[in-house]
Target: Methyltransferase domain-containing protein
Amino acid sequence: MNTSATLKAEIKRRVKWSLIGAVARLPDSVQTLLFVSSVRKYGKRVPILRVVYSGCYRTHPIDRTLGTDTGGIYPPESVTGTNGPENGNLPYMGCQPSIVRHALSQLGDVSGRTFIDIGCGKGRPMIVATEFPFDAVLGYDIAAPLVDIANRNAEIVARRFPGRTAMRAFVDDATRMPLPSKDIVAFFFNPFGAELMAIMRQKFEAALADHTIERLTIVYIYPTCAHVYDQSPMLARQASFNTPYAPSEIGYGPDLQQEVIIWNDARHAPACH
Ligand SMILES: C[S@@+](CC[C@H](N)C(=O)[O-])C[C@H]1O[C@@H](n2cnc3c(N)ncnc32)[C@H](O)[C@@H]1O
Model:
């Protein structure tokens, strides 16, 4: 692209995201009104409103219940200034708690294990992970403002559920961070493309080979780069399924169901079904 085309694209992108920001600040009552079916029918045709119909700007039921903030859509460059899609990093959008809950309930006893959300954003899956007896619940994201929000959410969850394992988020590039434990459940909700996912795979394989990790489970929601893990001789699929959103979450995300794939390291792989 030449300089003037690049500048035009940059201006267009900035205008688009400031308009989206304006829509995002509309009060919840207005957002709810936009979802009334007669309004929605016409609203969906207005280009700038289309993103509203992802459902991500409404106050999600989990936030309404807990008082947390896990909503919105943030392209990484809008919160980091760099690290945009040209580097393979994808935007923040929270996944549905019901899907995470269902996926984690497939893992059997998770006590002694460490949950890590690779690209944790505001920490919605970490909140769900605190419902399970993990030894630690950690998240990593390149976007510092999102990590700050995740840690504020962590304080809210800790006050509300003092008996649960505390969750904690860190600013880091997932492809460079050290792995924090020997027994890991690595969670992904579409944080980046195949190139960075291949780096993650190499990192996991090296850690399994030199026993920095003894046990690994990968839970991947919206698995656009599933082939990367399928090609690993050190991993085997445990399960692959489509899970519907809980009825209370319909309209709070762009889909109605979500694909989930789970892999285990070959030493701990039960048969795929
Ligand atoms: C689709 S969001 C998922 C957020 C959260 N896991 C969830 O499910 O609610 C993807 C997140 O990955 C983060 N991300 C993208 N590239 C990353 C990288 N290289 N290292 C760490 N985080 C990254 C983005 O900032 C964004 O918050």
The pocket of S-adenosylmethionine is lined by residues 76, 89-90, 92-95, 117, 119-121, 124-125, 140-143, 146, 173-175, 189-192, 196 (CB under 6 Å). The CA atoms of residues 57 and 72 lie 5 Å apart.
